Amino acid sequence: MSKAEGTKKVRIAYLMEEGGYRFVHFKGGDLMSGAGTNGFIPFSPRLFKTLCEKHYPGMSNNMIRDFAETVKTLSPDWSNLDRYIGFDNGRKVWDMQKLEWAPDQLDYVYSSPIKPNENTAVVERFLDQLARGDSALAQDYLQAIAPLFMYKKPTGVIWFVGDGANGKSSIIDATYRIMGNKHLASVTTAAIEDGRATPVLAGVLGNIVREASEARIVDTERYKAIGTHEPFAVRQMYTQDNITVDTNFHTIFNANNVPVFSDKTKGARRRTLVIPFKAHFIDDPLFDDKTFTPEFLGGMVTLLTREAKSIRENGYKYKWSDATIQAKSAYDSEVNSSESFLAYLKEKGIVGFYNYAKLKWEYESFCAQTGFLPLGLTTLKRTMVNETGASRKVFRDESGSVLARYVFEGASENLVWIEPYAVESKEVKVIEQAVIADEW
């Protein structure tokens, strides 16, 4: 070991032992903490320079940069501690993997100054007001946040949806007050699609977006990866390097409306979970400060840890209320109106149609009457083929005429089809049950 290297190690030991500073690697990044602070923050060259100028006056900028690189190189890797959250300055440590308190765990990266307590009644009253007395919906609000405290998380991206002044922003604010900005990101769907901002998601507990973007999403690859907690690669800004974003974090978007996804398959939709907020409150700028006291937040932590256990007992799956199930159903109908149109056809007993030009005209008429947004012919055809197996068939009617129709698969067990353009007619049975769309 050279004399210079020995000096650096002595200085690092001094900072850690006398100054109370700690430096660690965590999930591909570098973190630092100081005496009197609550947990770790991303390594900051500016703060590190201030630290060096305080303890080692006279160090040049080049020496400080070199010293910083040495600190990073010698820092221990704490990525395996991503299962722990230290509450109340580490007096209570939550094990997100076992979903229980770990009294003997001393080291942790995630931290909260909040002290958990059993005074949950005030929190339950608040949630009941948000849900307008629907206790099952109030439980959904806890379910929606609880995966923040779970290592194995259920599938899905949560959307808090409702008009303004209904409390959804307040419950987001309460979540931030519990965990703080250092462990939560706020990256919108538009920024996720763009990709340049996604590196900030590395190592966070959650992506909790206060005001989500409602812009149309064309590329849903990263959105779907986040919903199923699968890692994805993204290029780091100002470099040619790709980094892998670990998506073992929980995502909640707060919005008046869910944005439109160009992906008309069920991929993005299946991962999109809509939680309704129907209450309305008088706007009070001081409401959050008056309501979310340390005592309130401590009770909220207790409820969230209990709900995390309930989700585990349900096989790491959500168990939603009727109100949330209805909101999700309404979203599914709006996001792919072609499926709503198909449901309407089946309700009417219609099992076939003349051609796609005729069907598209009827579909657009349906959308105009119901207020849905009509999609393109490609999406309409995909829905008909995938959901019904509709294919072009030729058959004889009662008069003996040969007719060509697109008919749903399995429309009638009594139908015997003639091959299209057959030279010789085959004996067929008359359609008795089938209803054709051009006979409306």
* Sequence of strands across the biggest β-sheet: 9-10-13-8-14
Q: How would you sum up the global shape?
A: elongated
Radius of gyration: 29 Å
The overall average pLDDT, rounded, is: 84
* Alpha-beta content class: alpha/beta
Q: How many distinct helices?
A: 15
State the end-to-end distance. 89 Å
So, CATH architecture of the largest domain? 3-Layer(aba) Sandwich
Poorly predicted segments: 413-433
Oligomer: single chain
Q: Major sheet: size, sense and barrel closure?
A: 5 strands, parallel
Superfamily (CATH H level) name of the largest domain: P-loop containing nucleotide triphosphate hydrolases
The total count of strands amounts to 17
Q: How many distinct domains?
A: 3
Residues in helix, %: 25-40%
CATH class of the largest domain: Alpha Beta
Fill in the CATH topology of the largest domain: Rossmann fold
Q: Which range does the strand content fall in?
A: 15-25%
